[in-house]
Design a protein that fits this description.
- The chain is α+β, with helices and mostly antiparallel strands.
- The protein has a domain of 113 residues.
- The protein is built from seven helices and five strands.
- The strands form two sheets. A three-stranded antiparallel sheet has the order 4-3-5.
- Strand 3 and strand 4 form a beta hairpin.
- Helix 3 packs antiparallel against helix 5.
């Protein structure tokens, strides 16, 4: 039988507690002392620690998301500033058509600007509620920061690596002349 403490012995002598109940309480205390049975306080402490770790992890994830959002916003602001500084004013009477968001829009340009757009020297990018024309170097800087702002880049389409069967196709289509002034 587990040894009773002084208070338990006094309660037994006074007749306020039963011997079986005192022995049971003494056994529970002995088990708790040896670490066989987890105490309620230890369980509560483990739950609190687990909740604290989960909160720290949620806070860390939230902070990472906020940091990524702030960085993306800063990159878009840089791209907007580059566009504002380097844009080319489009003026003229020739309509240059380009696809944007599933629709075909047009931009009035002169012949020189149309040629520069066609061979990739100028790029069309989103700017505020409309579009702007950028020189190639400025457009590359915008692409590094916010590639979703690029609307039309004729050089990037032609710079892709040729496929295996393209040399045969090129030889076949070489017999068909395409006029230089073709505007769609």
């Amino acid at each position: 039988m587990a040894k009773l403490n002084a208070l338990q012995e006094q309660l037994l002598k006074a007749g306020l507690a039963k011997k079986s109940k005192a022995a049971e309480a003494a056994r529970e205390q002995e088990k708790a002392r040896r670490g066989e049975a987890p105490s309620a306080a230890a369980e509560i402490q483990r739950e609190a620690e687990r909740a604290r770790e989960e909160k720290i992890e949620r806070d860390r994830a939230l902070a990472a998301a906020q940091k990524a959002e702030a960085q993306a916003k800063a990159l878009r602001a840089q791209a907007r500033q580059i566009t504002l500084d380097k844009r080319v004013v489009a003026k003229g009477d020739i309509e240059y058509r380009y696809p944007i968001d599933g629709a075909i829009r047009s931009l009035l340009v002169d012949e020189t600007t149309r040629r520069q757009l066609a061979n990739g020297q100028l790029v069309i990018v989103r700017f505020d509620d409309g579009v702007a024309l950028l020189p190639r170097l400025a457009a590359d800087k915008v692409r590094e920061r916010a590639p979703e702002l690029i609307v039309l880049d004729n050089r990037s389409a032609s710079d892709t690596a040729p496929t295996a069967g393209s040399s045969e196709d090129d030889a076949y289509y070489a017999q068909f002349a395409v006029p230089d002034d073709l505007v769609w």
